[in-house]
């Protein structure tokens, strides 16, 4: 029995000693521990010993072993309890990779590309905000003159005077009894002309006639105080932007010759006065016009339907206009037009050319988006996000609309750095987007399960549309049949909007508590532009008409009391300033107001009462 006790003790000791090595899970464990089942926790030798002993031995030995076993059990539980075999984690089977083939032969896959460091095309490497020319502006007028420069207005003055002299000389030759002469306009008067256009836009008076604007009862005093209605009408009539005598030659190579010089200078100023953010938008604008124009477009989805189409590149955040290209069709004498898809790709690359290799993202609609364009832009470190038409050859059949696809579901496919997603907003419909910015299957809208690509597109697609909407809200456009004048009005509107964005970017606290800051900006800008001409007219020597004096007093100007035109005599004779030179009539009488010499045929004597009645 002692032998059995020793045997049992040794076996118990063996259990305790071997439990220290149980966690090793080595191949020696099965060799040292003799048991058939892998799940057994007690060695088989302990169980066999209890079965082979007789009854007496069992009673005596059990008492002895109980003490020993109790001690061993406590020490085993306190020091190092036996560890159960760890459960194996269920292995997740990898999702099978699907291959999508398109008609163009491009292969797409459902496997996401391996995630590496942020691509260089996604890193913005240029500062944003106002450009260097706008760093020192102090007034609203200076901000506006950054975009509509003095050089541009001088061109306008020069060509307007040229056209007016040409037409009036022709009129005088055809009507010798009704000769007419043109009084040259100058820089101050042209700035005042632009200021009145802006003020008319602020009052949303583009559909009001000039008679209503200059009316004594229902009109606005600022218009009567600045210039006469006939003068404003003459400036509208004779306003030109190029030399009309040489236009025919230039039209043979350029359909936009009538306003090309002004347009080129304007675009150059737009690009240097503001540095856009990381996202740009490319879209189109239609300038409504029904005038005769050989590149006029018909777009039934636009409010105006007919007009001149301009492709714009704008900042997605602020709607600042950056660059533009007018749709002219095929230019005269140009070689055979390229394929439509190549022409569109070249157009987008031309619009964004000043901002390539800067890590920006371009957002386009389905008119522009293509896989070839996205790959071209990646070559210049620029990414693309946009909707794409379903009939494109690079779209796999699996991404097309299907009645069996559930609502709010998405299918992603990848080709190197390009990502396609097809989202089902409602049954039997699908919206397909292409992105070279996103490279995963992220879903961010939990309610409608929209992919991140769609939300990014929705947030950045409206740059050009917002620019066009703001321009149309306070447009200075006047009714005209000449498309260059319609184009000029749009330049003034876009320039005023760009100046407002530059001013608010540089001065973010300017009227920050008011929700109509742009209206205030345009109102104050209009007054600043007409101020110089208004003061010159206020202090002119000849007496002002009564209506003009009342208008000036209404806007807060002090007007000197007019004096009656009297005639004084002098011993010195001079030629009458109002007679033709060939008459050579010399007189001694001159006007006491303007001091010009005038003959009896050109002066009248009136009393003070009549002077107050007729001259105000």
From TrEMBL:
Residues 142-494 form the PiggyBac transposable element-derived protein domain. The chain crosses the membrane at residues 487-505. Pfam families: DDE_Tnp_1_7. It comes from the Eukaryota. Residues 15-25 have a biased composition (Basic and acidic residues). InterPro entries: PGBD (IPR029526). Residues 101-111 have a biased composition (Polar residues). Residues 1-116 are annotated as: Disordered. Keywords: Membrane, Transmembrane, Transmembrane helix. Residues 64-79 have a biased composition (Acidic residues). It comes from Rotaria sordida. This is PiggyBac transposable element-derived protein domain-containing protein.
């Amino acid at each position: 029995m002692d032998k059995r006790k020793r045997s049992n003790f040794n076996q118990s000791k063996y259990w305790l000693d071997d439990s220290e090595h149980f966690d090793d899970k080595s191949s020696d464990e099965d060799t040292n521990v003799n048991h058939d089942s892998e799940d057994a926790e007690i060695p088989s030798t302990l169980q066999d010993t209890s079965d082979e002993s007789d009854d007496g031995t069992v009673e005596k030995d059990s008492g002895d072993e109980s003490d020993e076993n109790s001690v061993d059990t406590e020490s085993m539980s306190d020091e190092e309890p036996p560890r159960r075999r760890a459960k194996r984690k269920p292995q997740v089977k990898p999702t099978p990779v699907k291959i999508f083939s398109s008609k163009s032969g491009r292969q797409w896959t459902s496997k996401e590309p391996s995630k590496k460091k942020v691509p260089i095309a996604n890193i913005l490497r240029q500062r944003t905000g106002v450009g260097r020319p706008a760093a020192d502006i102090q007034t609203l007028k200076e901000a506006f003159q950054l975009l509509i420069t003095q050089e541009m207005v001088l061109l306008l003055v020069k060509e307007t005077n040229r056209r007016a002299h040409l037409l009036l000389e022709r009129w005088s030759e055809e009507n010798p009894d009704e000769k007419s002469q043109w009084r040259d306009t100058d820089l101050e008067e042209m700035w005042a002309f632009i200021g009145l256009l802006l003020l008319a836009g602020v009052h949303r008076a583009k559909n009001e006639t000039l008679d209503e604007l200059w009316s004594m009862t229902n009109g606005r005093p600022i218009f009567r105080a600045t210039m006469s209605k006939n003068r404003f009408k003459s400036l509208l009539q004779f306003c030109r932007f190029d030399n009309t005598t040489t236009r025919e030659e230039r039209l043979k190579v350029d359909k936009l010759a009538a306003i090309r010089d002004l347009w080129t200078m304007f675009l150059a100023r737009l690009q240097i006065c503001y540095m856009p953010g990381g996202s740009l938008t490319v879209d189109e604008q239609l300038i409504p016009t029904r005038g005769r124009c050989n590149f006029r477009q018909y777009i039934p989805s636009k409010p105006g339907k007919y007009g001149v189409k301009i492709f714009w590149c704008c900042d997605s955040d602020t709607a600042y206009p950056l660059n533009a290209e007018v749709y002219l069709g095929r230019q005269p004498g140009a070689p055979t037009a390229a394929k439509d898809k190549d022409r569109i790709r070249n157009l987008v690359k031309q619009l964004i050319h000043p901002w390539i290799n800067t890590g920006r993202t371009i957002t386009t609609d389905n008119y522009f988006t293509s896989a070839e364009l996205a790959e071209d832009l990646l070559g210049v470190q620029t990414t693309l996000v946009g909707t794409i038409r379903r009939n494109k050859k690079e779209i796999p059949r699996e991404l097309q609309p299907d009645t069996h696809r559930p609502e709010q579901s998405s299918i992603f496919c990848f080709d190197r750095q390009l990502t396609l997603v097809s989202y089902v907003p409602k049954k039997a419909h699908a919206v397909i987007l292409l992105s070279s910015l996103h490279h995963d299957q992220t879903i961010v809208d939990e309610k409608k399960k929209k992919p991140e690509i769609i939300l990014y597109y929705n947030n950045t697609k409206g740059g050009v549309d917002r620019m066009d909407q703001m321009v149309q809200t306070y447009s200075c456009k006047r009714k005209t049949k000449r498309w260059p004048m319609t184009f000029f009005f749009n330049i003034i509107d876009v320039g005023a909007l760009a100046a407002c964005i530059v001013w608010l970017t540089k001065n973010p606290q300017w009227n920050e508590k008011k929700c109509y800051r742009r209206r205030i900006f345009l109102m104050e800008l209009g007054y600043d532009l007409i101020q110089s001409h208004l003061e010159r007219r206020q202090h002119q020597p000849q007496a002002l008409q009564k209506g003009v004096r009342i208008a000036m007093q209404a806007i807060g100007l002090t007007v000197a009391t007019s004096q009656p035109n009297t005639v004084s005599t002098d011993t010195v004779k001079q030629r009458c300033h109002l007679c033709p030179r060939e008459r050579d009539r010399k007189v001694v009488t001159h006007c006491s107001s303007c001091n010009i010499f005038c003959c009896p045929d050109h002066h009248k004597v009136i009393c003070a009462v009549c002077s107050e009645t007729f001259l105000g």
